[in-house]
Amino acid sequence: MNGDFRHFTKRDKSDLRKAKTFEDLAVIALRVLKRMHQTERKRAHPRNIGMVSGPISTGGLGSPDANIKAMRKTIRKLEQKGYCVFNQLPFEDPMWKIIKTPYYQGELHLLTKFYRPIFKSGFITIIHVMLNWNTSFGATWEHKETKRFRIKQNHLTQ
């Protein structure tokens, strides 16, 4: 599985392996985000929870592997600077498995059933937008969607 599981419980990891739909994945993501939100509220100086938006399956560096590597690097840099970042990369492997099933109805299906509930939840208050975001169908959709939900955008310069 891709990504950092720091905010995941054993149940979250188990449920990731069992997930059959994007809705299943969204439930897990919202549990993780709720836990992150509760942790931040207890801090003396709570941080906003952000998420990185950039190319994964289309655009960017030309391949999902290269794009995931770039996103992982961006997440690490932001965390080193003190940002609180929801890492969506642990959901990538289960997403690719789901995409290969008859359940999958196209990229908008993934975006509306997984990412929209995350943005709508209010837990994500800032989106860190990677370079080349506009080369990706999904990141372009996220850009519009975060404006719709009034999520602050931080356009990264590197």
State the strand order across the main sheet: 2-1-3-4
Domain count, please report it. Answer: 1
CATH class: Alpha Beta
Oligomeric state of the chains in view: single chain
How many helical elements?
Answer: 6
Supply Rg.
Answer: 15 Å
Write the CATH fold name: Rossmann fold
First CA to last CA: what distance? 26 Å
- β-strand amount: 5-15%
> What is the annotated CATH architecture?
3-Layer(aba) Sandwich
Characterize the largest beta sheet: strand count, sense, and whether it forms a barrel: 4 strands, parallel
Helix content: 40-55%
Q: Kindly report the average pLDDT value.
A: 94
User: What is the H/E order?
Assistant: HHEHEHHEHE
Shape: globular
Number of strands: 4
Low-confidence stretches: none
Explain this structure.
The longest helix is centred in the first third of the chain and has 21 residues, at 22-42. It is globular, with a radius of gyration of 15 Å. Helix 6 links the parallel strand 3 (124-129) and strand 4. It has a four-stranded parallel beta sheet, sandwiched between helices. It is 51% helix and 11% strand. Helix 2 (22-42) runs parallel beside helix 5 and helix 5 packs parallel to helix 6 (137-148). The two termini are 26 Å apart. It contains six helices and four strands, in the order H-H-E-H-E-H-H-E-H-E. The protein is an alpha/beta fold. The chain has one domain (10-155): Rossmann fold (3-Layer(aba) Sandwich).
